[in-house]
Amino acid sequence: MYKILTLNSISVQGLARLPREHYEVASEIGHPDAILVRSAKMHDMELPKSVLAIGRAGAGTNNIPVDRMSKLGIPVFNAPGANANAVKELVIGGMLLAARNLCQAWDFTRQLPGEGAELDKAVEAGKKKFVGFELPSRTLGVVGLGAIGVQVANAALSLGMRVIGFDPQITVERAWELSSGVEKARSMDELFSRADVISVHVPLMDATRALINEARIKLMPGTGVILNFARGEIADEAAVLAALDAGKLGAYICDFPTRRLMGNAKVIALPHLGASTEEAEINCAVMVADTVRGYLENGVIRHSVNFPDADLPRMDAHRVTVANANVPNMVGQISSAFGDAGLNIADLLNKSRGNLAYTIVDLDGAPPEKVLAAIRGIEGVLCVRDLGRPRA
Fold it and tell me: Which burial class, exposed, middle or buried, applies to 377 when counting CB atoms under 10 A from its CB (0-12, 13-18, 19+)?
């Protein structure tokens, strides 16, 4: 019986992927094998020693101490792409709000006094303040062509916009999904210099912090619009506000309100609505439940933010997995330990990602505990799991 600790409310449809005959799921549970989380902050949490995996029912993992988990050999899973449509629709909605000044116009209208002819006159007199622009005449620059960025780029093309994108690390899978009509920018600065509207879809890290800054905003050809539905810190807030006040930016649309942003009439700050749809919550929960289950039962890794993907089809063999530092001769030492015990390796898969590596070994017999202990004692080994034979 596997025990799953939930730190937030997780969609029932997601939890249903964990069969009750094999899983106990609760918000308070001792010695959990895995933790499922959405927004709860885990950096100061004392992690039970029994934890083998952490699953985030969403894309970002800033609330999880990923580096600490890596040192313990614990994979952190997320749900990339599960909320992509929800965020894409919000981005397109934000672009329309900015293009037609809809929020400002609505606020103006709701405060108008009078009725009948008096109201009609006020409406006609005031509407000229909210003249906007049409999307087909504009160029959208998309920074980051992952699951969300690709959908945003494709949707903007369908609305008649010219679209340019920048992502030096685009995957083959995403490249296949991206419309051939999206033009490639050779650099971030080139993208800013060619785009009327910019939408960012990158994770927050040192390299992306303040990606939107004074120098890049100045490169924009006219009075631009910036959409930030990624992370607040990706934009230099002071630079954005200065550009708005100077007329270099016409609007800043984001999902991360701060008191300073909320005080500017050209800012539309939404309450972190990116993945706030029923469909997205279900999709994220289903994906992360499936990946955590695959890891617990079969040692398979998919959609991990710290360990490599590793999927070895299960056969009628005894499975052992090893998470370790990515150093030379690790596979040789693991294989020798099994060979010295007279165990034949039926199949083996070794994958690496940065400083970490992961090995799945299928054996023709059960390894004695002393063999597993010997492998745990190899310098650089972080975690060894004995999964036994597949469940009937």
Answer: exposed
Tokens of 392: 């009937």
Q: What predicted TM-score, i.e. pTM, was given to this entire model?
A: 0.81
Both 138 and 152 in one domain: the answer is: yes
For 268-292, write each residue's pLDDT tens digit: 999 999 888 999 999 999 999 999 9
**318 and 208, same domain (yes or no):** no
HEC states along 284-327? HHHHHHHHHHHHHHHCCECCECCCCCECCCCCCCEEEEEEEECC
Q: How far is CA 322 from CA 20, 278, 299, 371, in A?
A: 28, 37, 9, 13
Q: Do residue 128 and residue 253 come from a single domain?
A: yes
Report which residue type is found at 180: S
Q: What is the CATH number of the domain that holds 244?
A: 3.40.50.720
The whole-number average pLDDT for the span 309-334 is 96
pLDDT tens by residue, 144-175: 999 999 999 999 999 999 999 999 999 999 99
Report the distance separating Cα 149 and Cα 140, nearest Å.
11
198 and 66 in a common domain: no
Residues 121 and 247 in one domain: yes
Q: What angle do CA 219, 221, 226 make, to 5 degrees?
A: 75
Q: What are phi and psi of 158, to 5 degrees?
A: -65, -20
Residue 236's domain comprises: 84-269
Decide which of 286, 307, 328 is a domain's last residue: 307
Q: Write out the H or E segment, with its range, that includes residue 158.
A: helix 147-158
Question: 239 and 103, same structural domain?
Answer: yes
